[in-house]
Amino acid sequence: MFNALLLQKTDGQFSASITSLDESSLPPGDVQVRVDYSTLNFKDGLAIANKGPVVRAWPMVAGIDGAGTVLSSSHPDWKEGDHFIHNGWSLGETRWGLMAERASLEGRQLVKLPEAFTPRQAMAIGTAGYTAMLCVMALEERGLQPGQGEVLVTGATGGVGSTAIALLSRLGYTVVAATGKASEEAYLKALGAASVIDRASLGAAGKPLQKERWAGAVDTLGSHTLANVCAQMQYGGVVAACGLAQGADLPTTVMPFILRGVTLAGIDSVMAPLPKRQQAWARLARDLDAAKLESMVTEVSLAQAPEWAQALMDGRVRGRVVVKI
Predict the structure, then answer these.
(1) Which helix (H) or strand (E) is 45 found in, with range?
(2) Do 244 and 222 form a contact (C-beta atoms < 8 A)?
(3) 3-class state of residue 206 by DSSP
(4) Helix residue ranges per DSSP H, 52-176
(5) Cα–Cα distances in Å, from 146 out to 52, 125, 189?
(6) Topology of 2-113+289-324 in CATH?
(7) Are 189 and 165 in contact (CB under 8 A)?
(8) 106-to-61, 149, 325 alpha-carbon distances in Å
(9) Model pLDDT for residues 211-267, shown as the tens digit of each residue
(10) Residue 240 and residue 266: Cα distance in Å, rounded?
(11) DSSP per-residue codes, 208-276
């Protein structure tokens, strides 16, 4: 038997509770693991707080991320005692996830834990931080270099935003953080933001072309915010878009793209191929300041995960929430 955060919907009634499950109920998989830590990402918050149609099979064990130790394996790349990281791949949506003491996984979807990180640190990064690294890599691949101008990060106090600021600042970029939490300015500057702006300046409908400011941007919000960011990009600027916290719509025009040569790069972390994941985690091990990472972290127990999921949905969470299993 093992404990897990089980999401259920019976006769239209939703529940999220710590439940004891039999290991025989685990789905098929070629790697059996003990999970040491998981984490709360935005998608986890939606699922656990029942705020969005994330779960597509019931009942569901929550948790898209996990890190821990291999117990047994029939996959050639994994053996007993190896330390793994799992991000995405529809866990917590269509397949039982990792807010559980045990899990059954696919070896082809796992990344080996870099020596630079403990399992706790890997989950302090989680999908949010790994997505931030994918955004940084996308900006670099499209030619952005330090010294070309300011780089904007929206949703700055969230997991993606916090990690993106820490990464970009360490790489030499001048980072501007956009947030609705004026009280968090000191936190954002400690992560490496050169300045902080009010997200309200970006959140409403704006002109299709505006004064050029940003050389690059990481956007987690979508909707009017992303439209305004595109309208404010410098000629040849690059925007990495990875979220929809404000909305899934994009009320913009083609003008930033055909008159200023702006690039809008979409970032998907859920189904990204394994080589891209391995590259991202290697870069995180090299480029992420461990002290800054720790400053983002709140650690909670598995039993506390539901209340923290609600807090995440209410906008009351800063940085990363690590769930100790």
Answers:
(1) helix 42-48
(2) yes
(3) coil
(4) 119-141, 159-170
(5) 38, 24, 18
(6) Quinone Oxidoreductase; Chain A, domain 1 (3.90.180)
(7) no
(8) 16, 42, 20
(9) 999 999 999 999 999 999 999 999 999 999 999 999 999 999 999 999 999 999 999
(10) 6
(11) SS----EEEEEES-BHHHHHHHHHTEEEEEEEEE---SSBS-----SHHHHHS--EEEE---SS--HHH
Record the pTM. Answer: 0.94
Structure tokens at 22: 């039999």
Separation CA 218–CA 216 (nearest Å):
7
Sequence-distant (≥ 6) Cβ neighbours of residue 231 within 8 angstroms? 206, 207, 208, 209, 210, 252, 255, 256
- Shortest CA distance to 140 belongs to which of 286, 290, 280? 280
Locate tokens 């990064």: which residue? Answer: 125
Q: Are 207 and 232 in contact (CB under 8 A)?
A: no
Using alpha carbons only, give the angle 46, 51, 55 rounded to the nearest 5 degrees: 60
Are the beta carbons of 314 and 118 closer than 8 angstroms?
no
Tokens 């990792």 appear where? Answer: 98
Q: Are 274 and 295 in contact (CB under 8 A)?
A: no
Domain ranges of the chain: 2-113+289-324, 127-266
Q: 107 in helix, strand or coil? A: helix
Residue 100 DSSP code = B
CB atoms within 10 A of CB 252: 19
Rg (CA), the chain: 20
Distance CA 33, CA 223 (A): 39
CATH architecture designation of domain 127-266:
3-Layer(aba) Sandwich (3.40)
pLDDT digits (tens, 9 = 90+) for 284-310: 999 999 999 999 999 999 999 999 999
> Long-range contacts: 197-206, Cβ < 8 Å, 24+?
199/154, 199/155, 199/225, 202/154, 202/178, 202/228, 202/229, 203/228, 203/246, 205/251, 206/231
Q: Which of 31, 209, 161 is nearest to 109 (CA)?
A: 31
